[in-house]
Amino acid sequence: MPFAARRPTGSSRLAQAVVIASVLALGACNTGGGGPTAGLFGGEKQTTAAPPPNNPPVIGGGGVKIAMILPTTAGGQSGQLAQQLKNAADLAVQEFPGANIQIVVKDDGGTTEGGQAAASQAVGEGAQLIIGPLNAVAARGVAGPARQAGVPVVTFTTDTSVASRGVYLIGFLPSTDVERIVAFAATQNRRSFAALVPDDAYGSVTEAAFRQAAAQANVRILGIERYRDATEMTAKAQVIAKLGGQIDAVFVPDVAQNAAMAVQAMTGAGLDPRKVKFLGTGRWNDPAALASPALVGAWYPAVDPAKVDGFKSRYRQTYGGEASPLAVLGYEAVFLAAGLVRNAGPNPFREDVLLSRNGFLGATGVFRFRPDGISERGLAVFEITQGGSKMVGPAEKAFNGT
Q: pTM of the predicted model, to two decimals?
């Protein structure tokens, strides 16, 4: 079996009022969510930026200006995703009752320079919020002009090096997956962990998150091994297997095919799957994982599929084709913006509103932004069954305000 290629993977009262209003608005539309997007754009290269069109597309006719910065001329997957995000923004404006927003779509060409130019133009035109860009390269360009003008940014990149106060990552981050799955396993009396981790950028991020999550959950880590290829994976799996009865959970944050190989290698080396629970990340929210006999009984975090169906269906009916997991985040960001404009009063995107500790109920479930720009999300936990999965841990319906 070949070794699968790795994918890059203010006031409390006011904040609560905004949360409640946003919950009611989003709930009324029976919206749906998408799966994790971590690493989708990690392998993108800079492309030559095309000049922005003379008459950029405008979505909605409200009084509050918002810029949506996307690589509309970048071509390839980036261009396709940009179109889906535009569609999702259009759908959100259509479905929000009386949305008082006007979204001007600006092209960044997928480059830092393009992002900087688009953001400078947007703030000069009076944009109060920037949604986008798609990748970290362009987001670094957007951040400077936006920060200087005091305009917050809600970006789709999952590169946490871009995040900062005022630049918020709305996507699904590997750290959120790890925190959820480790905390859930701890509630199921799993107290001694090991990890078999790919020796790449995604593996480094998830390993750091794993160490932090284990400390927060007060569980022990008895071993962490890293691998770069199938041969090294097999050797490191044997090292984990030797821990035997000392461990009751093993974290394997790799794509489905590689994770299945790793689990097979560990069980083949004597690790008892009846006593040890295998744990994954959102990378396992994949048909390949659900079809793998080796992963039956394993746990992974994901958005509740019940939240996905409504959005996907309406998108399909309106635009044709299937919405990518990223499209729902575009819908969520625009719907949140419209909700804040309606409910948060003057200057709806000020920091105390965006940093509500209670968070917001979006199309994918509850989420909130931290002061460092990182997002936190409520995720469900699923167990892989024969040819499918079942929910074993429902997602949080609200944050506790801490």
A: 0.85
